[in-house]
Amino acid sequence: MSGFKEWKSAFDQWENATAEYSEKVMKMPSVLGPAGAVLSGLMKVKAAGDRAQANWWSALGLPTRRDQERTLHLLNQLESKIHDLEEKLEDANRKLAAKA
Q1: Distance from CA of residue 39 to its chain's centroid?
Q2: Average pLDDT over residues 29-56
Q3: What pTM, to 2 d.p., does this model score?
Q4: Between 20 and 30 A from 5 (CA), which of 24, 31, 67, 76?
């Protein structure tokens, strides 16, 4: 068991030293600038890919994710309105039953 404790101690020291060094490096402007540029580029590529995929689905006549989300939102609104109407109808029926 002693070997594990020694290894664990050495690993913890290495991890702390590495974390400190990585934190210093990641805060350097010479690293942040290019990293930000790469991230911006990747986001532009992803946006272009998403648009191409939506166009492809539309060309096939199938609903895109946005179309599906919009439809689901409308269905939820309709369900909510139906639920409200059912409650109003139940209240009206109770009032009629109470009067009779």
Answers
A1: 18
A2: 94
A3: 0.52
A4: 24
